[in-house]
Amino acid sequence: MMAPHGQTWPSETDFPDLAEVSVIARGAHATVYGAFQISAGREVALKIDNRVLAPDSDERRRFQQEARAVGRLSEHPGIIDTYIAGFTSQGHPYMVTELCQGSYADKLAKDGALTPEEVQRIGVRIADALAEAHEHRVLHRDIKPANLLIDRSGNPVLADFGVASLMDSRVGQPVVRAAMTPAYAPLETFHLRPSGEPGDVYSLAATLYALLSGRPPRFPADDRDFTIDDVIGLFTEPIGDVPGVSQTLLGMLRAAMTNNPEGRPSAMQFRDMLDSVPIAAATAAIPVATRTAPVHPALAAPPAPRRPEWTEPVTANVEAIQDRRPSPSPTPSPSPSPMPPPSPGPRPRPAWGIDRKPPAGPQGPPGPPGPPNNLPVPASRGKELELSTRRERRIAARGGKETSGIGQLILVGAIAVTIIVAGAVFAVWAFTGGEESSGDDTTADAVNCDVEKFNLSCVEPALCFNGALNDSKDFAAAEEISCKKEHQWEAYAKGELPKDVETPTIAAVSEQKIVKDTCLNEGSKGPLTSIKGVGASKWDSKVLPPTKKDFDAGSTTFYCVVQPKDGKPTTGSAFSE
């Protein structure tokens, strides 16, 4: 049965294993239903996209790839469990996920702003989840309080993971969504520049700020309509203090919301920053100065109360945003009329998020098979068995206690005053690019060759290259050059290919596990980060196989090579003394 305005009611043909279907929420792009999965005996959420993806379209193939990636991410306790993904018989993409209690947008609307301690706990958990996603090269692109859900155990989980980049972007193009919330989007989005991992970090920091203050950063508390120029103008305003929140915590959020994407910490660094703040420092009621930074008269708003109530963020003039795109986006579907009631089930649906057991009695045969368009999604681990962050693991090691006694609290209080000031200054200085440099900073990082644990060897003496890495046949083509001269590439580690590699093309070598885990692993667990730490974010890492001539002569040595992210040539070595 078709619902009005392009909204599709889930059919028994497409979802034979789901019963008691009812609408939870409708949006311009998708509808979310609650249902009971018969075979598993559990409540689930079903999200169906309003658009139809043609069988051979690029959008459909991207959905398949992204759905598998998001399914693997479900193993992280900070990311919502995804059970099934696929297409309806009419071509609508869908996902079946765990059913949660509600969102932090709902919680803000009901209870007002959260405590600094609770926001810190949420930030550590979700930043850890975001770091895991970025290691798998998956972006979120739409982090906001409405996409932070509360699971059955009361813990935060990140939802709609990958759907924004999956359904609304093309590779290499910026994302400007009709359904986006400008209050949580970084500046580069409005300039139509690609917003990658730094954009996700900005959105998470803006979300945490909203949880603390009841409002997204910079946006005044009124209901005016904003044009694209109004929104861009807001980024020149300072991010205000929040009464009762320490400058240490606020300094870290501001560092993650700097307008320069390259100055923001990675998700892993942001997690570690938040995790390093002692509870006393995060929750200390630091008074706010009566004299605030000047605000543009047109944007002035009444002062907020100490624990302000949540109000929905304003939305920008979407048409003005879309007019700036290289090519126009499809017009969003109009708001649908009420959906038809679901077929009567064996029992009424309880309130959203209440646990319900499967029907009593002996187990019957498994439910009917799902639709043939289902995509394989890896099974997820039970979240109740996971300890998601290092802070939680430390607490568990102490028997579940936050502190070891009054003495520890006194010690924390003694050092809190020092770190409140020093921490904020250091965080902003370290991650906003505020430090001064007297020369090319690509060679300024300390050298610390620590790659043996990756089955690699250090490169001594320094080894540099110029030119394209591969030729027209995909064989290694870069030419060795003295590192004292201007060069494009420098090797920072070397390893040996397996003996069963048949050809030394870059494509074939890049498929080898040792190469994927080393040269092509720019995440927190890769050798580049092991050597450079925070400085690893300045570099793009690639693999340089042995030349065809050397390979035919028996050589299997490959090099992990890097160039600065800006692509500019450098002089000197950044990886050798």
H/E order of the elements?
EEEHEEEHHEEHHHHHHHHHHEEEHHHEHE
The number of domains: 2
Mean pLDDT: 74
The gross shape turns out to be globular
CATH top level assignment of the largest domain: Mainly Alpha
Q: What's the assembly state of these chains?
A: single chain
Q: Return the structural class.
A: alpha+beta
* Spatial strand order of the main sheet: 1-2-3-5-4
Which strand-content bin applies to the residues? 5-15%
Largest sheet: 5 strands, antiparallel
Instruction: Write the CATH fold name of the largest domain.
Output: Transferase(Phosphotransferase), domain 1
The rounded Rg comes to 26 Å
Number of beta-strand segments: 13
Per CATH, which architecture of the largest domain? Orthogonal Bundle
Distance between the termini: 70 Å
Uncertain residue segments: 1-6, 166-179, 285-372, 378-391, 397-412, 430-446
Annotated CATH homologous superfamily of the largest domain: Transferase(Phosphotransferase) domain 1
Helix content: 25-40%
List the total number of helices: 17
EC number: 2.7.11.1
Region (Disordered): 320-389
Keywords: ATP-binding, Kinase, Membrane, Nucleotide-binding, Serine/threonine-protein kinase, Transferase, Transmembrane, Transmembrane helix
Protein name: non-specific serine/threonine protein kinase
